[in-house]
Amino acid sequence: MQTTKSLAIVIPVFNEGPYFKNNFLEILKTLRSDNILCRFMLVDDGSHDESWAVIESLCNEYEFVDAIRFSRNFGKEIAICAGLDHIDADLYITMDSDLQHPPRFIPEMLKLMETENVNMVEGIKSNRGKETFKHKFFAKTFYSLLHKITGLEMDNSSDFKLMDRSVIENIRTFGERNIFFRGLVDWVGFSKASFYFDVDERKDGGSSFSIFKLIVLAINAILAYTSKPLYLTIVCGVLFFIFAVVLGIQTLYNFFFGIAVSGFSTVILLLLITGSMVMFCLGIIGLYISRIYDEVKNRPRYIISKKINER
Ligand code: UDP
Ligand code: MG
Predict the structure, then answer these.
(1) Going by CATH, does the domain composed of 7-208+301-308 fall within 3.90.550.10?
(2) How far is residue 44's CA from residue 185's CA, in Å, rounded to a whole number?
């Protein structure tokens, strides 16, 4: 199967070590058996291990493999965007380097794009693969929080996507630093089809997303996508105002009728509740201010230390 359109595959790689070579060869073998021709853009997200050496040897061996290396770890989201910035084609696929986004589904995705005549085919996980209970729990909490706050339905969505030129050209115009790739893709719109796939188990190595990294990603995703949490501060304010009016009336009533209580615990409780609410709201505002600060500094999104074959 081969369409007349050119295809580019972008793969972010971070500390995948020696396994990456086998994973890449597996992807290549699968695509070749389906007669799919494509170019690859491998993005080394500042790996500390031999990943770059492996990528270099693949670039030397295959002329259709290009690569860039970041000067440090900038994160998967930025790595995907950088990869898309540095390769040109009619169709683009983004996928993980660990075979958890199985290449055998690529022909079906291409076919779906053609039959449904859409700009984008999104890979949706029909199972989450083998993840630790902790990972599953955090993913579930994160997606339900994201859905409540932003309205974004992202449960089981993945970065395994097929997109056409019009989508990518729009994504390239985004200059922001704090990005959540899936949120960005959702925001640009265009017609979409969903493709359900079973996540394969990671054969070698482990996930590079620790719980801490997942929490940071979750906060980033919400802040990058919406300013709705700021409205939460107003909701808190209104609730406390109603609370204050009711308590105020009661206090005045007690005062004028000479039955003012000696309720010290009430005072302490009120102080604690309002204090924590004020801090909570200030925290939310602070988060957005720090994002504004990040953006106005206008630093480059990523720094490339090495490029191979890239044109
Ligand atoms: N990755 C990356 N930068 C990072 C962390 C991960 O480019 O800081 C890449 C990694 O090499 C892989 C993909 O993102 O290609 C998914 O990573 P991983 O398998 O660790 O995540 P999980 O599958 O657990 O979500
Ligand atoms: Mg993985």
Answers:
(1) yes
(2) 22
